[in-house]
Amino acid sequence: MITCPVCQHSELDGTLFCSECGSRLWGEALTEETATLTAASLPRTDKIGSLVFPAFSPVTGLTVRISGAKEPVQLAGKNEYLLGRSDPKHDVVPDLDLGPYGGQQLGVSRKHACLSQTEAGLSIRDLGSTNGTLVNGRVLGPTEDWPLRDGDEIRLGKLALTIYFITEPDSSNVGL
Asked: Sign of the C-alpha dihedral, residues 164, 168, 173, 176?
């Protein structure tokens, strides 16, 4: 058994995140610096060494790799996508139904989170889910918007997804 360092809840060996509070149970704990990050505090560019990349290119679609799934899921054509589990009895039909991927057993709510495309980029918002939403190990507060970057890992409850952006080629670079 593993004991969560934050809430002292017991989890089975091999569990990555606490099912009670969402804290990481492996690797480095959040530092004082990363624990206080907010969406507004993030830089508008990505810097790797001396190279600076734009933080946003228009996203025309998404490829979602779901932990344990054989094939990725493609999402395109909308500015918002509801992530959750289908429940026809309560008239809930998410854009990405995670029920077939063990969503209920892994703690995915019917209306768990929303991906939104805006002029500022792609972001995710937890919709007050029971088991929480994490982006790269950071727990989101209920209704908190968080900017996403290509390759980010999202956890809805205990279900891990990786988001990859599909962007249109920049026509200004043609022939370079």
From this structure: positive
